[in-house]
Amino acid sequence: MPGYSVTQLSSDAGVSECTGDSKKQPVFALYLLELIPEDKSNDRALFLPNEHQGFLCIPPTRKEMSSTPAHRAIWARRLSASGCLSLTDPNFAVYLDSIACVGGLRSEFRFPRKEVKSNSQRADNNTESNDQTGAVEDEPNSEDESNACVYLCGNSLGLQNRRTAEMVLAELDVWADQAVQGHFVHSEGRNWKNITDLVNPILARLVGATKSTEVACTGSLTTNLHILMTTFYRPTKERYKILCEAHCFPSDLYAFTSQIEMHGLDPNDALISLTPRPGEFTLRLEDITSAINREGQSIALIIFSGVQFYTGQAFPIKQITAAGHQQGCIVGWDLAHAIGNIPLELHDWQVDFAAWCSYKYLNAGPGAIAGLFVHENWTSDPTKLGGPHGRPRLAGWFGHNPATRFQMPDQYEPIRGAGQFVHSNSDVLSVISLYSSLQLFGSYPGGMSGLRARSEELTGYLEMCLQGLSSYVDPRYAIGYPDSLNEQQRSRARAVGFTIMTPSIPAQRGSQLSLSFLPSGKGLMIEIARQLLELGIVADEREPDVIRFSPVPMYNSFEDCRKTVEALNSILEAQNSAPAISS
């Protein structure tokens, strides 16, 4: 197009810019896309206006990137329709929220306030005084959004919905007014003796169980893993190893190693933890299946995270499970970061067992009651579990047949289904807190599919805005930065940068982007996280170098994403006011 100077994409370019008439930029972005046939557009770049009055250049589609022609066309048309000049224009975020937030449940949740955040920081520093301003009021959450923090930390602890307190208080009233009779006669119709019947059908839908009997609401995540592994990790002389991803959540690792040691084995021999290829942050499916095929005859149990807590990578559960079964392995999953985040079809995928917590995307509250799944293949035949010939299974009275449970028989009669792995009566207040949140999943248009579609939009927008910042570093050059750069690249490098560890393909991630701050090992993340919090941005810091941002589709907005990018950019630009790195 005449009048525009377009920067050519080199082979090492992640993003680049071109200049032109800013008033015509949205039209140009749209025109360029429509000019190129879709089957040819993989070889061309899409230029979108950025905040520098130039263009953000989304490179040609490669198989490892998320920017398909159709995806890029959607964003180009939205930008054009909004009349805005930049992805990070506040008016563009408002426009996106106006067209894409239909059915959003933001108003159903309570957001932390900036004053509460500031007071918490002062308390941590032991400098809080009684007469300071910004004290916490009786009402912990205001309807005024201008005073609310931007909360992108739902992957660590989900927000409280506005019905939770009311429903929990109702249970306290039943306890006060009816005491033990609340187990059997409940003013709200929620008898405590079968309180989990409220949540199990919803949990079943979220994990893709065909029947609610394949799930159980019980315990805590690590405890449930131990209970399940007592049954499903039965090492023999030939088949005794556990296969997992490296750097899984530490509690999982402790569970795996202690289970191995409990059987008198050495974790150095019996635990296989897969690491990414050199220079990469995440595992490739072909490397996982290769390890399964290579070691399969010695593997007793394969257990991965549905979504990796640190990198945000969503593993292909169906394919890994199938590969494990082909080698005769039991396959289980930790779904702490997956349930309520990505679509799951555990029954159809033939997953043997899974466990999860409920305080992240399920918004059930800190330390909330957890859950587990056991495929009916294991529970439909009563001889497979327990008894003299089945796999051992730990038992408790709430895993006994409900019809005779309160008759207290000596002979254990297990529930047909995952319920036989429940040991004790449930924490009623925690179940009710979970129930108050799970009801919202049913009220969201399209259910989990609708939430997933919105999640991809929010996370994709956040990713594109982050990639447009001058401090962004292509993941190919992040490890060893800045020494990983060539001389020309080093001349343009920033003293402080970041990369995105999380896969760019939407199907390979959930509602999370993990940013690693560079150069690594310098402690940069701690100060950046502190400054973000001062600016009212609540994210999740993970030592040594990572901050995780999680735009939760149920309550986060495009404006939340934009504000986060704006705040991060201001921090990094201030830190990069020093001279650039020289060669």
From TrEMBL:
It catalyses: L-kynurenine + H2O = anthranilate + L-alanine + H(+); 3-hydroxy-L-kynurenine + H2O = 3-hydroxyanthranilate + L-alanine + H(+). The modification N6-(pyridoxal phosphate)lysine is found at residue 360. The keyword Iron does not apply. Pyridoxal 5'-phosphate binds at residues 221-222, 249-252, 305, 334, 337, 359, 397, 425. Residues 187-387 form the Aminotransferase class V domain. Pathway: Amino-acid degradation; L-kynurenine degradation; L-alanine and anthranilate from L-kynurenine: step 1/1; Cofactor biosynthesis; NAD(+) biosynthesis; quinolinate from L-kynurenine: step 2/3. This is Kynureninase. It comes from Puccinia striiformis.
